[in-house]
Design goal:
Elements: H1 3-107
Amino acid sequence: MTPDEFFQKIENSINTLAGHLAHFEEREEAQRIRHDKEMADIRELQNAFAAGMIRLQEMQAKTDRRLDDSKQEWEAGMKQLREAQRITEEKLHALIETVDQIIRRKSE
C-alpha cells in the first residue's frame, strides 16, 4: 500500500466516521426534542392531576359537611320523635288510667 493509498484510506474512514457522527448527532437532537416534549407532557399531566386532587378534596370536604349537617338534622329529628313518643305514651297511660277508673266506678 502506497502512502497515498494509505492516506486515502484514512481520509475515507474519517469521512465515514464524520458521516456517522453527524447522523448520530441528528438522532440525538431528535431524541432530545422528543424527550423535552414528553417531559412537558408529564408536567402538564402532573398539574392536571394536582388540580383534580384539589377539586376532589374540596368536593370531599363539602360532602363531609353535608353529611355532618344531615346527621345533626337526623339526630334532632330523632330527639323530637322520642319526645313526641314519650308524650304520647304519657297521654296513653293517662287515658288508660281514666278508662280504668270509669270502668271501676261503673262496676261498683
